[in-house]
Structure prediction request, 221 residues.
Amino acid sequence: MGKIIKFGEDVAGYNIPVLNEREIRAAAGILFLATFLGLMLIIFKGNFVPIKYIITLFFVDFIIRVFINPKFSPTLIIGRLFVRNQNPEYVGAKQKKFSWMIGLILSATMFALMVVVNSYSPITGIVCLICLIFLFFESAFGICLGCKMYNLFYKDKAQYCPGEVCDVKARQEIQKTSAAQLFVVLGFVGLVFLLAFLFNDNFKKPPYDLFGVFGTEQPVK
Prediction:
């Protein structure tokens, strides 16, 4: 039973239980995609059925992660299959458990309000947005927002963080951002506003079927 109910793996060279960050990021990407698609179906189709399935599976997955063993989490298993040929990147299990407890609370809230009570409100919208932000930062940037909150509540600081961000060190030259690069980013943002100002009306025009394979009518000119 002790091998089943456990949080984290014992790996040689690490003095605390650890998890594989690569499969965690993969699982976060899977959950983000599913939640995002469910949200789009609500916004554009008014269809709440898929998101109810997603929330329920999300909730069950996090119950398994936190209270049983991350090794048996369905999304982490799928993530492991995708990244099984990549070298593992080990992270401390403690801060991940704290982060996933936040995820469990958020998914429990969504489950209670949308699945059990069968309702929607600004509360469910905000909680869903928070979940998407957490999942996006984890999958896209490898930044665990919940892990950063761990250091605010516990005296023993997080160990073995993704990208070794827990270790205080000087940035290497390739990691530094120059003023010219920042100027490029500002210019890119300015381009977005310029496009919106100059071409918004043109962008609003619906595209037509170039080859006529879908049988749609040509837009009226």
